[in-house]
Design brief:
The protein is mainly alpha-helical. The protein has helices spanning 8-17, 21-53. The chain is elongated.
Length: 60
């Protein structure tokens, strides 16, 4: 997340150096929201399709 000089990870890295707690908390919230969106929109449907394909559950 900090391998470049732009982006969310770099923002958190710089905020740490300047003791910008509000920026750090905002970055943590943004990371959490992104994780939740990826989980709900991508991973849950993929897991459901995989379970149906391999016969672990019956399709609804």
């Amino acid at each position: 997340m900090i391998a470049t000089n732009v982006g969310l990870g770099y923002m958190l890295f710089v905020a740490r150096d300047f003791y910008r707690t509000e920026v750090i908390v905002l970055g943590m919230i943004v990371i959490g929201v992104l994780w939740l969106m990826i989980d709900r929109l991508l991973l849950v449907p993929l897991e459901r399709a995989t379970m149906e394909r391999w016969g672990m559950v019956r399709p609804a």
